[in-house]
Design brief:
Blueprint: E1 2-7, H1 14-27, E2 29-35, H2 46-56, E3 63-68, H3 72-78, E4 83-88, H4 91-107, E5 112-117, H5 127-135, H6 146-156
Bound molecules: adenosine-5'-diphosphate.
């Protein structure tokens, strides 16, 4: 099966990467879709986020990376995936994720959203938290792939 994993990935964390690897093991193929959202300013450009994921997933057979704009369900249809993959870290993610899943299902009932629970040791990881730590010179090596750590060091030093 082929799963679409959409997100901002601004930047990719080890929590995201864990989900991609487990998604691959479960479904065979994961298409990581990096969202270009003109209404939201991102820290890293679309090209930078694409490159980070491309490099960090080079070891994963079955992973491809794309960029998309607009509706997730349109992207899912265009890329002929079987399902949409999302992650859950805590109850605080649940309401937001459920609302997105219901919205997508109302638009395209043929795409199920499958949630994977975060690995417990990655449950505190978010892109924004990683950026806060990096901004103030904290160690982020256990939070993000090497390529992302390098980009964050460049950005804040
Ligand atoms: P979005 O802006 O679409 O929420 P994110 O890049 O923040 O994009 O997250 C993409 C998906 O990855 C979301 O489903 C989110 O819940 C999930 N996710 C984020 N961080 C983690 C983590 N540490 N462990 C598991 N899933 C995560």
């Amino acid at each position: 099966m082929r799963a679409l994993y959409p997100g901002s990935f601004d930047p990719l964390t080890l929590g995201h990467l864990d989900l991609i690897e487990r998604g691959c093991a479960l479904f065979g193929e994961v298409v990581v879709a990096v969202l270009c959202n003109p209404a939201k300013t991102s820290t890293f450009t679309l090209q930078e986020r694409f490159n980070q994921i491309h490099v960090a997933t080079a070891h994963c057979k079955g992973v491809s990376v794309i960029c998309f704009e607009g509706l997730t369900v349109s992207c899912a249809r265009h890329n002929q995936v079987d399902l949409i993959l999302r992650g859950l870290r805590a109850m605080s993610d649940f309401e937001y994720e459920l609302q997105i899943a219901h919205t997508n299902r109302s638009l395209a009932p043929d795409f199920e959203t499958i949630f994977l629970a975060t690995a417990a040791h990655h449950s505190f990881l978010s892109s924004s938290m990683v950026k806060e730590v990096a901004r103030f010179g904290g160690n982020i090596d256990h939070m993000v792939p090497e390529v992302v750590a390098q980009d964050l060091h460049r950005l804040f030093n």
